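Our consortium's second objective concerns turning raw sequence data into structural hypotheses that experimental partners can test. To show how far this objective has progressed, the report includes one record in full. It was chosen at random from the queue rather than selected for favorable results. The single chain below, 69 residues long, was entered without modification.
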Amino acid sequence: MNINLESQYRRDLVEVCRRMYQKGFVASNDGNVSIRISDKEILATPTGMSKGDISPDQLIKVNMKGELI
């Protein structure tokens, strides 16, 4: 995965979370938001973190089995 592309995906996911929170579509710690960034990798918000305050470096990357990368 291209590092610049992954960085953009991280920023985009954080922006989606921020907008969802601002519009009241999700309470701060409800659920998870994720994006599939390759055939084998997913970026996701960690459990229990506010969607309105998350930063790109707090996102987790997992494989298709859900194992932390």
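The partners drew two points from this record. The longest strand covers residues 41-44. The chain has a mean pLDDT of 94. Both points have been shared with the crystallography group to help prioritize constructs.
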